[in-house]
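Pasting as-is:
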Amino acid sequence: ERAQALIAKQYGKESAAMAAVYMLQGELYEDKGELDKALAAQLQAVRIRQAVLGERHVDTAEACQNAGNTYLALSEQGKALQMLERALKIRLATVGEKHASTALVYDNIGNVYHSKGEYD
């Protein structure tokens, strides 16, 4: 939270730097098992990255992917799938079908279907 205040003062509350802070906070909360706090931070990162960088930016895709994985950890498969499909759409448009980061999104989507017991 101290870093949040410093970054907000230096770069503004709606900056790419602030989104990066939220991403890191989300990771830390997730590592601690505080998934609700992790998701809140990740959704802030999604919102800011979309506003600052646009919907078709790889960093926006990364934020969507992290939020999608946290939704899955919270057993919210529908929301996880929505967020991961959004990340996939961005990845396909920016880095293409054969990029490793696109493959990872496909893997994450597969994890959602697996958690739902849908194997076809």
